[in-house]
Design goal:
Layout lengths: L18 H17 L3 H13 L8 H24 L1 H20 L4 H29 L3 H32 L4 H4 L1 H15 L13 H24 L4 H21 L10 H4 L1 H31 L4 H7 L1 H18 L6 H18 L8 H28 L7 H36 L5 H37 L21
Helix pairs in contact: 1-5, 1-6, 1-8, 2-6, 3-4, 3-5, 3-9, 3-17, 4-5, 4-8, 5-17, 6-13, 6-14, 6-16, 9-10, 9-17, 12-16, 12-17, 12-18, 14-16, 15-16, 15-18, 16-17, 17-18
């Protein structure tokens, strides 16, 4: 790095002068993908009425997206490595926009479910391409910190932003605009990508590991689908158990296959690196707690406190602000000076403290005094966590593996979210049922007792979420031993690869 006459650092001489505009394009795409995981949640009741979707089938509006997205991420990441990251990025954007338009124009439930699944397919191509483009564009530690701060803020807050946007669009337009809104965003992002983003072509002669695709993606689809079905069906349901067992077996065979095949879908040296594995596990555990919070707080604010969809979305804004501040103003500034775990562990402690505050909520809690402080702490903690996880997990990866490494980070996030939603919802439902069965009251008090039972279930599940969040902090402190980037190798230098 050269030095200006004033003594300040300059970017590398081969850095793309338009890279910061490229970051805007990447950020738009990332926001669109993450936002769509939750933007439809608030619109779901309206869509259900409009398309006459049964209560048993309505979950597929959410599940079709999450299963396709989480299950196909490894394939999407490897395709990005093989065909080129910018090309995969543009294809993902165009496909995602087309699927969104199809969903917005849905005339029946099957058409909406198919469109949501297609969104997930193209998101699985788009998300790892976006993160790997960021990884290969920003290699200077100082700039990398700022870029990953923006990316981490959007990755962490996009779900909360989805509640706000979904509430506004549903209340003032209609539910279809929760899907249509992706089309203009994608048009802007595609135009920007073609003009601003650059990428080296994929390796010549490289082939796709087809057995690895069938085993790995099949296992992930079964696993994510199994966790999704555990929520409505219950953990002891034979279909759920069969899905989870099939997922575990397929993934076990997948790992064995990757260890022996040439040109694997997921080179195992990526997982054998201690820091990278620690980041993957930290991400999965942290997201378990965060998705549980989104699930419970959405219902708590609307059902128990009686908030409108827009007011519910706005109530999440302090969480979003906390994530943005934690990622862009704290983590991005400190990561080049301190080891990643010095941000990850305190971040998880802050998030745990926020969850513990929420265990005190009742059916009559005040938002300002009981909910707001918890959301701010949770946001700051997740902001401190997301940015160093993304930056550390993708640092030093060989260019030909950047797409699949990025996909693995996203996969850990999706699997953690699926586990969190299913596990914590089961705990909450069981605890509420136990609370109500132990209290026999007259009909005049029944409604109040039911509300108290619902909140009791939420608080019990949040205790579990706090424990899982604390475990994520312990994993980060023990497994992620990387030094501060300024004291280690440059971000762009590939790490030595062990034999996979």
């Amino acid at each position: 790095m050269s030095v200006t006459r004033a003594g300040g650092p300059q970017p590398p001489v081969d850095a793309d002068p338009r890279r910061w505009w490229g970051l805007v394009v990447i950020a738009l795409a990332q926001l669109m993908v993450v936002l769509d995981a939750t933007i439809v949640n608030i619109a779901l009741p309206s869509a259900q009425r409009a398309l006459d979707i049964s209560d048993g089938d309505r979950q597929w509006v959410i599940t079709a997206y999450s299963v396709a997205f989480g299950g196909l991420l490894l394939l999407g990441g490897r395709i990005a490595d093989l065909v080129g990251r910018r090309r995969a990025f543009v294809i993902g954007l165009v496909g995602f926009a087309a699927a969104s338009a199809l969903g917005g124009a849905a005339t029946g439930s099957a058409m909406l479910f198919a469109a949501r699944a297609l969104q997930g397919v193209f998101a699985a191509l788009l998300a790892p391409a976006a993160l790997s483009l960021l990884t290969t564009t920003f290699t200077d530690p100082r700039e990398r910190g700022k870029a990953f701060g923006v990316y981490g803020a959007l990755a962490g807050s996009g779900s909360a932003i989805g509640f706000v946007v979904g509430g506004v669009l549903t209340e003032y337009l209609n539910w279809r605009w929760c899907l249509y809104v992706n089309v203009p965003i994608a048009v802007v992002a595609v135009t920007g990508a073609l003009a601003l983003l650059h990428d080296r072509p994929g390796p010549a002669g490289a082939r796709l590991d087809v057995p690895g695709v069938l085993l790995g993606c099949g296992g992930l689809v079964a696993l994510v689908h199994g966790f999704s079905e555990a929520q409505p069906r219950g953990w002891s349901d034979p279909y759920v158990l069969a899905l989870l067992a099939a997922g575990a077996v397929l993934l076990a065979v997948f790992v064995r296959w990757q260890n022996h095949t040439f040109g694997p879908l997921l080179p195992l040296h990526i997982l054998k690196d201690r820091d990278r594995a620690g980041c993957f596990l930290t991400m999965a555990l942290a997201v378990v707690g965060m998705f549980g919070l989104f699930l419970f707080m959405t219902y708590y604010l609307q059902v128990v406190l009686g908030y409108s969809p827009v007011r519910t979305g706005l109530a999440f804004l302090p969480l979003t602000a906390g994530i943005i501040v934690g990622a862009t103003q704290i983590s991005a500034r400190l990561l080049q000076h301190v080891p990643p775990r010095m941000l990850l562990t305190p971040g998880m402690i802050l998030a745990t403290a926020g969850l513990l505050l929420l265990t005190r909520m009742t059916a009559h809690s005040s938002y300002a005094s009981d909910i707001l402080p918890a959301l701010i702490l949770m946001g700051l903690g997740m902001g401190l966590t997301f940015m160093p996880v993304f930056a550390t997990a993708t640092a030093g990866v060989a260019p030909q593996d950047s797409g699949v490494t990025s996909a693995t980070v996203n996969t850990s996030q999706q699997v953690g979210g699926s586990i969190g939603t299913a596990l914590l919802n089961t705990i909450a439902t069981t605890s509420s049922a136990g609370y109500l069965s132990a209290r026999r009251t007259d009909p005049a008090q029944r409604e109040q007792v039911v509300r108290e039972g619902i909140v009791h279930g939420y608080t019990v599940a949040i205790w579990w979420a706090a424990g899982i969040m604390m475990l994520a902090g312990l994993v980060a402190g023990l497994m992620v031993t990387a030094r501060a980037p300024k004291h280690g190798s440059p971000a762009g230098a590939p790490v030595p690869q062990s034999v996979a």
